[in-house]
Structure formats: structure tokens, C-alpha cells
Design a protein that fits this description.
Length: about 230
């Protein structure tokens, strides 16, 4: 009777761990955010276990049945489209429900975009805050950035390519010459780290259309002229 929270790669399939592959092969049921996306990984690993969808739109409906299966001593794994379940995806809901029912929850660690981006950012790694996706509206983003003017810890956000320009404009307006690092397409062929002020990154994106998955980071103590 265990629920395994299994991290999977964030791009490069080679980043699956030996332990994750072993646990997935042993499980009777694999819960995935998008079963078609996860099939690519499972096929790559030669895993034929039954899969079932677990996402924000069905989590409330299917959780009681999954708890019943776990109580029936079924070995179940939860994976997401990419990275670590529970980080910016519905994993938390099932984990909390399982713990409330006395079910053993076992984390199988692996990739997550947060730490992968942070450790190569060049920004301080000793203390950091993950803020998930940035607000969609400029006024809310600016309000958030205002509240961070005296924040000593490194900030980490998820962002989409279609909002990054507006986000950089807001950073420029509120935080001026703070050094921003954008980690793009981590672990994939086009992996790229862009480092500079918001203004410099806006110049870059005027010539290169923003694409792919991205993590945005800054630390208000680090201005462009301090840490090259
Ligand atoms: N559970 C995932 C994790 O552990 O990183 C995050 C899921 S969240 C729904 C997806 C967001 O994570 C993307 O929009 C992007 O901001 C970030 N992300 C995921 N994979 C990435 C990658 N390979 N490179 C850069 N950012 C990535």
C-alpha cells in the first residue's frame, strides 16, 4: 500500500533515474497528467503498466477510487508531463488525500525545472523562493515585483514564451537594472541560459522570437554591474 511520487525528465529522456524506471516497471497503475505525453517515456522504458489520467479537471472525482485501490494494497505511481509531481501540477491533491488516509507516500526524486535552472543561473543558490507561474496581468505582476524590492533571496518563476516580453517590461519598470536569468528548454537540444538586465533581454527577444519552456530568475541584490 504505497503511492510513489515519481519524478520524470523535463526534456531529456536520459534523465530518468534507475530507481524511477524500476518503480514504474513494478507499479500496477501509473497515474499521468496526460497519458499520451507519458506514453512516450513509458514506451521508451518498455513499461506496459496500465495508465490512467490524473489532472486538475478530474482529481476530485477520481481520488476516492484511487485511495480505495491503494488501501487494497495496489502499488500506484504518480507522474506528470515533466519533472517532479506536485510542483506546479495536481500532485499535491492526491498526496494530501493519501496521507490523510494513512497511506505510505514514497518520493522518487529526479528532475525539476526549479533546481535545474537555479544551479546554472549564476545567482545566489543559498536561499531562494519559488513563486510558480507569474500572474497573467501586468498590474498584478508589477505589484508582486514591488513587494520584492527588499527581498534578499533569489526568486524563481515559471513563465510562458507568449508573456515573457510583458514580464520583462514589468521587471524593467519596477526593478530597473536587476540581473535577470532566463533558463530556456532545459536539458533539451536548444537549452539556453540568457543573462542580462530586463532591457538587454528585451533587445535579445526583439531579434529572437521567444520560444519553448522557460524559468525566470532574479535576485534584487544582484545588479548587472556586480556579477557578470
Ligand atoms: N512539475 C514540473 C517541474 O518539476 O519542473 C513543472 C510543471 S509546470 C506545469 C511547467 C513549467 O515548468 C513550464 O511552463 C516551464 O516554466 C517549466 N519547465 C518545465 N520543463 C522545463 C524545461 N525543460 N525548461 C525550462 N522550463 C521548464
Amino acid at each position: 500500500m504505497s503511492l510513489y511520487i515519481v519524478s520524470t525528465p523535463i526534456g531529456n529522456l536520459g534523465d530518468i533515474t534507475v530507481r524511477a524506471a524500476k518503480i514504474l516497471a513494478e507499479c500496477e497503475l501509473i497515474l499521468a497528467e496526460d497519458t499520451r505525453t507519458s506514453k512516450k517515456l513509458l514506451n521508451h522504458l518498455g513499461i506496459t503498466a496500465q495508465t490512467s489520467a490524473y489532472h486538475d479537471f478530474n482529481k476530485e472525482k477520481v481520488t476516492p477510487g484511487l485511495i480505495a485501490l491503494l488501501k487494497d494494497k495496489k502499488k500506484i505511481a504518480l507522474i506528470t508531463d515533466a519533472g517532479t509531481p506536485g510542483i506546479a501540477d495536481p500532485g499535491f491533491y492526491l498526496t494530501r488525500a493519501a496521507i490523510a488516509e494513512g497511506i505510505n507516500v514514497v518520493p522518487i526524486p529526479g528532475a525539476s525545472a526549479i533546481l535545474t535552472a537555479l544551479v546554472a543561473s549564476g545567482l545566489p543558490t543559498d536561499r531562494f523562493i519559488f513563486e510558480n507561474f507569474l500572474p497573467h496581468k501586468s498590474t498584478q505582476r508589477q505589484k508582486l515585483f514591488e513587494s520584492l524590492k527588499n527581498e534578499p533571496r533569489t526568486m524563481i518563476f515559471y513563465e510562458t514564451p507568449h508573456r515573457i516580453i510583458k514580464t520583462l517590461e514589468d521587471i524593467k519598470t519596477v526593478l530597473g537594472g536587476v540581473r535577470v536569468v532566463i533558463a530556456r528548454e532545459l536539458t533539451k537540444i536548444h537549452e539556453e541560459f540568457l543573462r542580462g538586465t530586463a532591457e538587454e533581454l528585451l533587445v535579445h527577444f526583439a531579434e529572437h522570437q521567444p520560444r519553448g519552456e522557460m524559468v525566470v530568475m532574479f535576485n534584487v541584490r544582484v545588479r548587472q554591474n556586480i556579477l557578470k
